[in-house]
UniProtKB/TrEMBL annotation:
It comes from the Eukaryota. Transmembrane segments: none annotated. This is Glucose dehydrogenase [FAD, quinone]-like. InterPro entries: FAD/NAD-bd_sf (IPR036188), GMC_OxRdtase (IPR012132), GMC_OxRtase_C (IPR007867). Belongs to the GMC oxidoreductase family. SUPFAM superfamilies: FAD-linked reductases, C-terminal domain, FAD/NAD(P)-binding domain.
Amino acid sequence: DRGLFSREAIGLKPEYYDALYGPLQGKATAVVSIHVARPKSSGWVMLKSANPLENPLFDFNGGDHPDDMRLLVKGLQFLVRTFLQTRVMRDVAGARYMSRPIPGCQRMRFLSDEYWECHARSLMTVSWHGCGTSKMAPASDPLGVVNNRLSLRGVKGVRVVDTSIMPQVITTNTQGTAYVIGEKGADLIKEDWGFPTQPLL
């Protein structure tokens, strides 16, 4: 599917895309990815200017923590050494790893831990959704931004009601959690303004 595996859909630089997917044009292919569900690396976000319409600056800083990189390398080794060697993948699917080093990692021993770390750092991307930039925490936490009623510390009349209040990354898509936070935030606002809330059950 050229749409699914197009350079724009995958988000790779042209040189990486041409090296990895160029030889596969017109062939049956599949992409299997390794995902660190609870990364220890954390990024940052900050205002670019005083203009509220200008996009902020941010860096997900993926792979910064060595434990995250060790997990990625371990997962990639498992994928090639174990998963692709199962009977189902070999005999039924006919799957095999594309034995072509990616640009920038050719000097390393192919499929070594060093190679896989280079591979991961070159192709790493962030999936699901960012969260945690306005952490909910008790007053004793200097990194906390909102309290347990989602009120912004030090600013009267402002609440933050989205996934940015999550103190930790969850292990799945954040959409369901966003709904829960939104419903709870709506209840807190109605409560503060004297409107009764109706329980779901």
